[in-house]
Specification:
The structure holds two protein chains of two kinds. Chain A is globular and about 75 Å long. In chain A, helix 4 packs parallel to helix 8, helix 5 packs across helix 8 and helix 12 packs antiparallel against helix 13. Chain A has 13 helices and no strands. Chain A has a domain of about 170 residues: MetI-like (MetI-like fold), CATH 1.10.3720. By secondary structure, chain A is mostly helical. Helix content of chain A is about 70%, strand content about 0%. In chain B, helix 1 crosses helix 13, helix 7 crosses helix 14 and helix 8 runs antiparallel to helix 9. Chain B is mainly α. Helix content of chain B is about 75%, strand content about 0%. Chain B has two domains: about 60 residues; about 210 residues, MetI-like fold (Orthogonal Bundle). The chains are: A mainly alpha, B mainly alpha. Chains A and B meet through helix 2, helix 4, helix 5, helix 6 and helix 8 of A and helix 1, helix 4, helix 5, helix 6 and helix 7 of B.
Chain lengths: ~325, ~280
């Protein structure tokens, strides 16, 4: 590579270094170029320091009994943390809470977001204003969302209980009754995240060719069958990927659950991520916290692989259709 | 004509649904303003009214004085600016490499970037806490900038890469023949062409830094250095909260996010789509 000349234009074939001709063919330029590595190195080194090293340290911690008071200490305990977690009822409750939270959030956010995208895709008076209002929740800082929802859910003076009081229903402890805690957290989360689904699906809808609509209209198709035959197949790939992102984000979502319930009432919203935090900073048990983190990460990875398999099957089906 | 009438009930149902969800989306925002314009006596004792008491707008300065919101917002601003700047510098270069070159390990690099979306901050916060403790970065706003950037930069890379992908290569080709170095092609030719995407990435990164809570809550124990997310969260679940003042402060903290989001909404949507769907 030292023979690389700085002259412009492609060198005559005779002076090309011979043996590396196979790799040469895969390169865009006829000569080996270090430039891309220089451009991407800072970002990758940065991620290595602030994500990969901590991740590796986290995995290592999961095999130790490290405590918060002495993060540098702690001795190797093999898979003890894993056996302890996988046999504890508390862990499986936490796992179940994560699944409930994720499924609830993803199903409602994707259904509502997609439906609203379809509705505001057609022109009507005031559409811009409606679309702006529908995107407010997404722009709102999570801490503000938590503050207002805690107040709306307030048992004696909150808007929700006063609203259902008008209907003759009694007070509900939305954030204090274990039967309602998960519902309340999912509702607040769906409120916050459905606009993301709506905006992304809307962008995908706007790329449906107008001629397709025209063609079916001439054929006399009504709204619903147009939707099923044209719109839905067009947006499905987008909806699937948004659902994947929503799922991954729900598994790792921390702030809104932490602020609304802190994992309560009676651990009913103690998702894996909340569990990590409590284990680390309340129980001060860094080893066990890291173990829950690794198990949570395995859950995210499994979901991703599952989605990618579905995606591949769908792509194959579409290709053969 | 007949078909139009037959469709009418369906159409009404659709718009009723749309109206219902618009109310669902708007109510908490409305209620936040309503709470901010109520008195604490009304909130806890006599009952909060449904309609806005706009005559109370004059009480806002007094309410804001009850909460150190301006110094918290200044801290949030420092964290957000730092995060945006660092994140964009790294992302512009990386996006350029990913868009304009073929190189060994490119697929791996792209995978690493996507995989960052899966890492829970709550897992990383534990080892990062230990790492930051040993480098004296706890209780420092620039420590938060460093931690946040690791999560915001990949998003910026997705957005910028797809923007650069759309620029025809011929534009740089002529500059290259004229002997313009790669760094010059990036700053003088490509960057001016992708300003809208850079703006979208900047807004998304800025408000990720502005809103960030977990790292700030864990790393910053000195109340004078709290960003607004942590400061406002300190009131959640407290008894005898000056609730109307806290809501006023929270609304003040919310306004910039909503305004900026609406201004660059179109770019953000195409940016998010690029990052989420094609990334």
């Amino acid at each position: 590579m030292a023979t690389r000349s700085s002259t412009q234009g492609s060198p005559p074939p005779a002076v090309r270094p011979g043996p590396s001709s196979v790799s040469e063919r895969t390169l865009a330029k006829p000569r080996r170029n270090w430039t891309p590595y220089l451009f991407i190195a800072p970002a990758l080194i940065y991620l290595a320091i602030f994500l990969l090293v901590p991740l590796a340290r986290g995995i290592q911690l999961s095999f130790t009994d490290t405590k918060l008071v002495n993060p540098g200490g702690g001795s190797f305990v093999g898979v003890d943390n894993y056996t302890q977690m996988l046999t504890s009822e508390q862990f499986w409750n936490s796992f179940l809470a994560t699944v409930l939270y994720t499924v609830g959030t993803v199903v409602f956010a994707v259904l509502i977001g997609t439906a609203l995208a379809v509705l505001i895709n057609r022109p009507f008076r005031g559409r811009t204003v409606v679309r702006a209002i529908l995107t407010f929740p997404y722009a709102m800082p999570t801490v503000a969302v938590a503050l207002i929802f805690v107040w709306i859910y307030n048992q004696s003076s909150g808007a929700l209980n006063r609203g259902i009081g008008v209907l003759g229903l009694g007070e509900v402890g939305w954030l204090t009754d274990p039967a309602y805690g998960m519902f309340s957290v999912v509702l607040a989360t769906v409120w916050k995240v459905f606009p993301f689904v709506m905006l992304v699906v809307l962008a995908s809808l706007q790329s449906v060719p107008e001629e397709l609509f025209e063609a079916t209209r001439i054929d006399g198709a009504d709204g619903l069958s147009t939707f099923r035959a044209i719109v839905l197949p067009h947006i499905m790939p987008t909806v699937r990927i948004v659902a994947l992102l929503m799922t991954i984000w729900s598994i790792r979502r921390f702030e809104i659950i932490y602020l609304l319930t802190g994992g309560g009432p009676v651990e009913s919203t103690n998702t894996l991520v909340i569990n990590i935090y409590r284990q680390a900073f309340s129980s001060q048990n860094l080893g066990l916290a890291a173990t829950i983190g690794v198990l949570g990460l395995i859950l995210s990875l499994s979901v991703t692989v599952f989605f990618l398999l579905v995606e591949r099957r769908e792509n194959k089906r579409e290709a053969s259709a | 004509m007949i078909r139009k009438i037959r469709k009418l009930p369906g159409r009404v149902a659709l718009f009723l649904g749309l109206g219902l969800f618009t109310v669902f989306a708007a109510f908490p925002v409305y209620w936040m303003i309503n709470t901010a314009l109520s008195t604490d006596t009304e909130l806890y004792k006599t009952g909060q009214g449904f309609w806005l008491k706009l005559s109370r707008l004059g009480d806002i300065p007094a309410k804001l004085a009850e909460v150190p919101i301006f110094s918290w917002i200044a801290n949030s601003g420092i964290v957000a600016f730092g995060t945006t700047f660092l994140s964009l510098v790294l992302a512009v270069m990386a996006a350029y490499a990913l868009s304009r070159f073929k190189f060994h390990g490119k697929g791996l690099a792209a995978f690493v970037l996507f995989a960052t979306q899966m890492l829970p901050e709550a897992l990383l916060v534990v080892p990062l806490f230990a790492l930051f403790a040993s480098f004296g970065l706890l209780n420092e706003l620039h420590g938060l900038v460093l931690a946040n950037t690791a999560f915001t930069m990949p998003v910026a890379i997705f957005i910028l890469k797809s923007a650069i992908d759309k620029i025809p290569y011929e534009i740089e080709e002529s500059a290259r023949i004229d002997g313009c170095p790669r760094s010059g092609q990036l700053t003088m030719i490509i960057l001016p062409l992708i300003v809208p995407s850079v703006a979208a990435a900047a807004v998304i990164n800025f408000f990720d830094g502005w809103n960030e809570f977990l790292f700030a809550n864990t790393f910053i124990s000195d109340a004078a250095k709290w960003p607004a997310s942590v400061g406002l969260a300190s009131f959640v679940g407290q008894y005898a909260t000056p609730l109307s003042s806290v809501m006023t402060a929270a609304f003040l903290f919310t306004i910039p996010a909503i305004v900026f989001f609406l201004i660059v909404q179109r770019q953000i949507v195409s940016g998010l789509t690029a990052g989420a769907v094609k990334g």
